[in-house]
Design goal:
The protein has 2 domains: 2-118, Rossmann fold (3-Layer(aba) Sandwich); 127-237, Winged helix-like DNA-binding domain superfamily/Winged helix DNA-binding domain (Arc Repressor Mutant, subunit A), CATH 1.10.10. Helix content is 37%, strand content 20%. The chain has 8 helices and 12 strands. The protein has helices at 10-22, 33-43, 59-69, 83-90, 104-118, 153-164, 172-179, 189-202, and strands at 2-6, 26-30, 47-51, 73-78, 96-99, 127-129, 133-136, 141-144, 147-149, 170-171, 212-215, 219-222.
């Protein structure tokens, strides 16, 4: 992925370039808004980092022109909490805001997340069936073998959120905030309780869960049949088979 950095601060631009190149990105540099717009037109970068204070053209105007002429991910950076950032937000001119000094690690993780969101997705299946567990997300039907299983609304929400992102660890904070958005953060013990309830209902052996697995200190994941195990690289972090973690 090519990243264009439009910034007249040589030290920051050079530091970012070196850090991003170590992460496998290709880098192009521009020291002015005019030069940056010209390179963006010629190079078609996947992402453009724009300093809000450039020597010739306001960074906001650069973002505006980029949005009109390209589909690049646009990242605004600034050392100040200034009005142009608010204008950029209102006009939806940028995809990401970062404060100086920019953390290359944060930039890399955020850009990769934005890139994944932009990738076209296959139509999402509304059913899961592996010969033992059957879940229909549309009519909210759950069967274990031939037996119909009844889940409460919150239990079904927990199962749905994990099933839609199966074979990916979903952080506890994400699950809790999406299911109980109005609850205080210190009430996330509810999540552990509901996970136990769902396990009791859908697992053949809740003490050694096959479907809803735990990543200690992080969150939970739904393991589908033949799905890639996101914990395979750190098995020591997963719950012991005889005693599932909360």
């Amino acid at each position: 992925m090519l990243v264009l950095i439009i910034d007249d601060e040589d030290l920051l631009a050079t530091t970012m370039r070196r850090a991003l190149e170590r992460e496998g990105f290709s880098i192009a540099l521009a020291a002015s808004g005019a030069q940056g717009l010209k390179q963006a037109s010629e190079l078609r970068p996947g992402a453009v980092i724009v300093d809000m204070r450039l020597p010739d053209i306001p960074g906001l105007d650069v973002c505006r022109q980029l949005r009109e002429t390209s589909d690049s991910i646009i990242v605004a950076i600034s050392a100040y909490a200034e009005a142009p950032l608010q204008d950029a937000g209102r006009e939806q001119l940028v995809d990401l805001y970062l404060s100086k000094p920019v953390s290359p690690r944060e930039f890399v993780s955020r850009i990769r997340a934005l890139k994944r969101l932009r990738q076209p997705r296959e139509p999402e299946s509304t059913e899961y069936h592996d010969g033992f567990l059957y879940v229909d997300l549309l009519d909210r039907t759950v069967r274990k073998g031939c037996k119909r299983i009844y889940l409460s609304d919150k239990e079904f929400e927990v199962l749905t959120l994990l099933l839609r992102q199966r074979n990916r660890v979903v952080p506890r904070e994400e699950l809790f905030q999406r299911i109980w958005p109005e609850a205080p953060s210190n009430a996330d013990k509810f999540l552990s309780q509901y996970v136990r309830r769902v396990r009791t209902k859908i697992e053949a052996d809740p003490s050694a869960p096959k479907y809803i697995r735990t990543k200690r200190g992080v969150g939970y994941w739904f393991s589908s049949e033949n799905g890639a195990d996101p914990l395979a690289h750190s098995a020591a972090d997963s719950a012991p088979s005889g005693s599932p973690a909360d």
